[in-house]
Design goal:
Low-confidence stretches of chain B: 345-352, 361-365
Largest sheet of chain A: 7 strands, antiparallel
Distance between the termini of chain A: 39 Å
Number of strands of chain B: 16
Number of helices of chain B: 14
Mean pLDDT of chain A: 84
Shape of chain A: globular
Shape of chain B: globular
Strand content of chain A: 25-35%
Low-confidence stretches of chain A: 199-207, 269-277
Distance between the termini of chain B: 42 Å
Mean pLDDT of chain B: 91
Structural class of chain A: alpha+beta
Strand order of the largest sheet of chain A: 1-2-6-7-10-13-14
Number of helices of chain A: 6
Structural class of chain B: alpha/beta
Strand order of the largest sheet of chain B: 15-13-12-11-7-10-9-8-16
Largest sheet of chain B: 9 strands, mixed
Radius of gyration of chain A: 19 Å
Bound molecules: nicotinamide-adenine-dinucleotide
Largest interface: A-B, 44 and 26 residues
Order of helices and strands of chain A: EEHHEHEEHEEEEEEEEHHE
Order of helices and strands of chain B: HHHEHEHEHEHEHEHEHHEEEEEEHEEHHE
Helix content of chain B: 25-40%
Strand content of chain B: 15-25%
Helix content of chain A: 25-40%
Oligomer: heterodimer
Radius of gyration of chain B: 24 Å
Chain lengths: 277, 421
């Protein structure tokens, strides 16, 4: 038996495919979990995050009441450290000094303060974080085989492929779609793909990749891929790789060369892709 | 076509109308349709005797349709232009009386009703004269050249206790009836917008034969006799919109221009209007004469789907599927395992959906014929087909109000002084 739900959330198309065992309402419950994360972390309509941003931009501290936002901040603090500070949801192209370093988050008191006006944009992290929640719900509901996608750049799988073994994915070359950059097999893992080129990067709501060190926009043609047990970690890592300089990239890739990839394309290869808008 | 074939196709046509009108709420939504299909066939000698005024293009099409009915007959024809009268004569029994003056036809008697297919500005005069002669009237759309004249026609038929029926054939067309039924059953959800267009690639100018004047033949292009695209084309579609919204507009705004055919015509060759309905619903209407790409259609847009009655299609709103994942599903089902390509676009514009949709209805037989069977029944019983005149009145008023909105550049509210039906 296979079933699927499709819906729009987090500014993208979400699909949840379940194969075999599990409770009847597993997919619906997973959908609710994703929508709950979107409701808490979105900056495109009023949410716990926009309320927090208003205070931080006004130079005020704030208590974090929303449990999802709290968990997200805890994860971000860890990922900040794990990515040499390169994954930074507070980076702002207007102010080089703005960023997570301006933020003091105290888990014990659930309070956040900032030394200058900052605003959080969870971007891709939110998608990975939401998929993690959905995977947890599916497992709790007895699902042993599922594939979740939030847009085509964030994928998570539960268990093994329905025919056994890993879930095979291939990542096409963003500029030459007939070529494959890398093939991966996933079991109980997530993959995140970040790119400065290719279809979709010119989309109006797609936040530009900002290098936290100097607040410049990364424009070199580049694509990064990261696999991790957790989607939130995969997202943070692929973002960090995309904005890393050579030494930083070497350091991050060194952590796991079979699960992290960075592809630099020659500048001339970056044919702009026109998107109707 | 043999008699038997005719009976079969007629039967299947009537069956389609019956099926389409059978649903819950349909008797209230389109009461005229079921009344029309129920019309009793009459012996030749008992048929309702019609005198046709105007044997131009439309008048002749009507004559041919009347001939197919089982309760009406053309007893006389009239046209003040000999060439057109001769063309009409060729379609009727040689014993049919012909006239060049409609008053002479009315005075000659022997009629139960008249059929008016003359230019728009003459509809009022011809119908008044018929009412005064104690006759019922079937009149082509639109009703009349002004909103006041439309109201006067309604008033006159009410006062004289006659039947007045206006020729909006879509109200009898099985695909439309079926579309209304499916919309009523909630298949396309809450309807919030209708996008309608009538786009043509034609000057709309007819060659003027010897013995005729340009204004006589091309009456559609001059303001005295027509509101152009609004009364000739938009009326049909505004009526469809009113039917699906189950309301009349609350106000209208628009822009009209002579944009392409600058050939001395007086009516707009390009109109764009928004008709608002209660609750923020809208009809967005365009008509033009120099591009036929999107043709004639009403796109009835609901929260769950879209109906396009001219194309006869219904479309469901479906979240877009990721093709790669769809293929994975199919692979698994067939015991296949192969790599799923990912990392493509996460964003795409909402391009027009080009899937074919589902067929909505069936081929058509002849709704124009059915209009006359309904009319024949109404004349015979003295009872107008329920609901139809008020539909027609609203559609005519709306088309003329649209003309005024474009002429004045103002947003115009629905008139409060209309005749109650
Ligand atoms: N329901 C539809 O789909 C549809 C389609 C086409 C036309 N129409 C309507 O039919 C009507 C006629 O349109 P048409 O295309 O046939 O135009 P047309 O010009 O071909 O025909 C009008 C006819 O009326 C005749 N006429 C004019 N003044 C007359 C008078 N005083 N007495 C007798 N005859 C007179 C003309 O000589 C002409 O033959 C219009 O109201 C038009 O809107 C409806």
């Amino acid at each position: 038996m296979a079933d699927v739900v499709r819906f729009a959330s987090m500014g993208t198309r979400v699909e949840l495919h379940r194969f075999g065992a599990g409770e009847d309402d597993a997919l619906t419950a997973a959908q609710r979990a994703i929508e709950a994360v979107d409701n808490a972390l979105t900056i495109h309509r009023p949410s716990a995050t926009t309320a927090l941003n208003e205070r931080l931009m006004a130079g005020q501290g704030a208590g974090i009441d929303d449990p999802l936002l709290f968990d997200a901040l805890v994860a971000i603090e860890e990922l900040q450290a794990a990515t040499l500070g390169l994954f930074d949801p507070a980076a702002d192209r207007r102010f080089a000094s703005a960023g997570w370093s301006a933020i003091a988050f105290d888990r014990n008191s659930a309070r956040i303060e900032a030394s200058m006006p900052v605003a959080l944009d969870f971007g891709g992290f939110g998608k990975g974080f939401a998929l993690d929640r959905a995977c947890a719900v599916l497992r709790a509901k007895g699902v042993v085989s599922a594939c979740l996608s939030a847009g085509e750049s964030s994928i998570a799988v539960v268990g093994e492929h329905p025919l056994g073994g890993g879930w095979p994915f291939s990542i096409p070359h963003p500029l030459r779609p007939d070529e494959i950059l890398v093939e991966l097999e996933l079991i109980d893992e997530s993959v995140s793909i970040s790119s400065t080129v290719g279809a979709g990067t010119a989309a109006p709501e797609r936040a530009a990749m900002i290098r936290p060190i100097d607040a410049t926009i990364v424009s070199a043609p580049r694509c990064s891929v990261a696999v991790d047990r957790l989607g939130a970690h995969a997202e943070a890592m692929s973002t960090a790789l995309l904005v890393a300089d050579e030494a930083q990239a070497e350091c991050l890739l060194h952590g796991d060369r079979t699960r992290r990839f960075l592809f630099d394309f020659p500048r001339g290869a970056a044919i702009p892709i026109n998107q109707p808008g | 076509m043999t008699e038997k074939d005719f009976d079969l196709s007629r039967r299947s046509f009537i069956d389609r109308v019956l099926m389409a009108t059978a649903g819950a709420g349909m008797a209230a939504a389109v009461p005229w349709a079921s009344a029309a299909v129920g019309a009793a066939p009459l012996a030749k000698s008992d048929r309702v005797r019609l005198g046709v005024i105007g044997t131009g293009d439309r008048g002749r099409a009507l004559i041919q349709n009347i001939a197919k009915t089982r309760n009406c007959t053309v007893a006389a024809i009239c046209d003040n232009f000999e060439l057109h009268l001769a063309k009409g004569r060729a379609l009727v029994d040689p014993s049919t009386r012909t006239f060049t003056d409609h008053r002479a036809m009315l005075d000659a008697g022997g009629l139960d009703a008249v059929v008016i297919a003359t230019p728009l500005d003459l509809h009022k005069r011809h119908s008044f004269d018929a009412f005064d002669a104690g006759l019922h009237v079937w009149c082509e759309k639109a009703m009349a050249r002004t909103i006041d004249d439309c109201g006067a026609m309604v008033k006159r038929t009410q006062d004289s206790g006659t039947v007045l029926q206006i020729g909006h054939q879509r109200m009898f067309k099985p695909t439309y009836l079926n579309a209304v039924k499916r919309a009523k059953e909630g298949e396309i959800g809450a309807i919030t917008q209708i996008r309608a267009s009538w786009h043509r690639q034609s000057s709309w100018r007819r060659p003027v034969p010897a013995g005729a004047t340009d204004r006589q033949i091309n009456w559609r292009l001059y303001r005295d006799s027509s509101a152009g695209l609004m009364t000739e084309l938009a009326t049909h579609q505004i009526q469809v919109s009113n039917l699906f919204f189950d309301a009349v507009p609350t106000r209208v705004m628009g822009s009209g221009s002579i944009c392409f055919w600058k050939d001395g015509r007086e009516v707009y060759d390009h109109v764009a209007l928004i008709y608002e309905y209660a609750g923020g619903r809208k009809l967005i209407y365009t008509s033009l004469l120099n591009n036929a790409r999107y043709g004639c259609e009403e796109q009835i847009q609901g929260s769950k789907g879209t109906i396009e009655p001219e194309l006869g299609r219904i479309y469901q709103e479906l979240p877009p599927k990721e093709l790669a994942l769809l293929r994975m599903q199919a692979d698994v089902a067939s015991g296949h395992k192969r790599a799923v390509p990912i990392g493509g676009a996460t964003w795409f514009a909402e391009l027009p959906v080009t899937t074919p949709g589902e067929p909505l209805g069936w081929g058509e037989y002849d709704e124009t014929m059915l209009q006359f069977e309904g009319f024949g029944e109404a004349v015979r019983t003295g009872k107008p087909l329920p609901g139809l005149l008020s539909q027609a009145y609203s559609a005519s008023v709306a088309s003329l109000l649209g003309e005024q909105a474009m002429d004045s550049g103002q947003i115009l509210n629905w008139p409060t002084s209309l005749v109650a039906i």
